[in-house]
UniProtKB/TrEMBL annotation, chain B:
The chain crosses the membrane at residues 65-82, 119-139, 151-172, 178-199. Its main location: membrane. One of its GO terms (biological process) is vesicle-mediated transport. InterPro entries: ER_ret_rcpt. It holds the Pfam family ER_lumen_recept. This is ER lumen protein-retaining receptor.
Length: 10, 212
């Protein structure tokens, strides 16, 4: 499970 | 994108529009906490600075502009246009006790020590408690207009739907963002008391009045 810091949510 | 996130965004948009229309149509911001609305404007401003640096989708960009535009329009109507109807005597929550510790926390606990990321983290933490002045004001006045309770319902529902979105994304995409999830859980828990009153009173046609 990778943590994603590219915030694609509002 | 999944159904929970889409309905969450639409619920959030509905809340923002309901509040804007309530103030605009009734030409009154009685019962509305201006402090919470300032905090929401701050949340959107610090979170959506990436509008200047990255493009994710037309949906993402347009929603961010709508959120920011409505937030500032609401603050403008409360503190300028319909200032006379602003109930400052009951909107007395000390927001500096929220903003300062959260600012510090954003520096200590974040995914990446870069300006944009720290501001994003600050906005996530701040959003989780931004409704407190509004809930505090309702507890002080002991009641809320029905339209205001609908605003709060959709606003609380949006982050609850986002929690389901994060479960969905963890299971199907392996995506998880612990900061957003923890803050989202705190945010949703703060609405539980209101949700109970909303379901047991407002949905039965009664007025929302707290035992003052």
């Amino acid at each position: 499970r990778q943590l994603i810091t590219s915030h694609d949510e509002l | 994108m999944n159904i929970f996130r889409l309905t969450g965004d639409l619920s959030h948009l509905a809340a923002i529009i309901i509040l804007l229309l309530k103030i605009w149509k009734t030409r009154s911001c009685a019962g509305i906490s201006g402090k919470s609305q300032i905090l929401f404007a701050l949340v959107f401003t610090t979170r959506y600075l990436d509008l200047l640096t990255s493009f994710i989708s037309l949906y993402n960009t347009s929603m961010k502009f709508i959120y920011i535009g409505c937030a500032y329009a609401t603050v403008y109507m409360i503190y300028a246009k319909f200032k006379a109807t602003y109930d400052g005597n009951h909107d007395t929550f000390r927001v500096e006790f929220l903003v300062v510790p959260i600012g510090g926390l954003a520096f200590l606990v974040n995914h990446d020590f870069s300006p944009l990321e720290i501001l994003w983290t600050f906005s996530i933490y701040l959003e989780s408690v931004a409704i407190l002045p509004q809930l505090f004001m309702i507890s002080k006045t002991g009641e809320a207009e029905t339209i205001t309770t609908h605003y709060l319902f959709f606003l609380g529902l949006y982050r609850a739907l986002y929690l389901m979105n994060w479960i969905w994304r963890f299971y199907f995409e392996g995506f998880f963002d612990m900061i957003a999830i923890v803050a989202g859980v705190v945010q949703t828990i703060l609405y539980c008391d209101f949700f109970y009153l909303y379901v047991t009173k407002v949905l039965k046609g009664k007025k929302l009045s707290l035992p003052a």
